[in-house]
Amino acid sequence: MTDIADLERRLQRIEDERAIERMIASYGPLVDAGEADAAAELWAVDGSYDVEGWRMAGRADVAAMVRSDAHQGLIGRGCCHFLGPAVVTVDGDDAVAMCDSILVTRRGDGFAVSRAGANHFRLRRIDDRWQIVERRTRMLDGSVEARRLLTDGVAGR
Fold first, then answer.
1. For the segment 41-84, what is each residue's pLDDT rounded down to a tens digit?
2. DSSP letters of the chain?
3. What residue ranges do the domains of the chain occupy?
4. pLDDT (tens digit per residue) in 5-32
5. Domain 4-154 adopts which CATH fold?
C-alpha cells in the first residue's frame, strides 16, 4: 500500500519534471520572438551555454546572443528553434535533461531544416524555480560527442 509521503514524493517528481519540460519547451518560442531577457532568465545567474564550441557564461551572454545581429537576422528572415520532448531525471534539487532540436529556416516560399542538434542540460532548483546551470548543444553530425550527450541524458547522467 502506498502511503501519503510516498504519493507526495511522486507528485513532486512529476511536478518537477513537468516544470523542466515546460521551461525547455519555452526556449524556442522565446528566442524566435527575440525575447532576450526572458530567454536569459531560463539560466542560473552563473549558468553556461556551450553550442558548437561557442561558450556563453551567464545570463548576459545568452541575452547578447539573442540580441546579436546574426540572431536578429535569422529571426527577421523567419525561423523556428524547435526542441523536442525532453527526457528528464530529477534528483532532489538537481536534474538532467536531454532532447533533440532542429532549427528550421525560411527558404523562399517554404522552410528547410538548417541544423539538428543534441542538447544536454544540467538544472538546479534555485529560488524555488528550475534554472539551467549548464547546456551543451552539438550538431547531430555522427560525432561521438553528440551521441554521448544523448545517451548520457537518457541515462540521467
1. 999 999 999 998 889 999 999 999 999 999 999 999 999 999 99
2. ---HHHHHHHHHHHHHHHHHHHHHHHHHHHHHTT-HHHHHTTEEEEEEEEETTEEEESHHHHHHHHHSHHHHHHHHH-EEEEE-PPEEEEETTEEEEEEEEEEEEEETTEEEEEEEEEEEEEEEEETTEEEEEEEEEEE-SS-HHHHHHHHHHHTT-
3. 4-154
4. 999 999 999 999 999 999 999 999 999 9
5. Nuclear Transport Factor 2; Chain: A, (3.10.450)
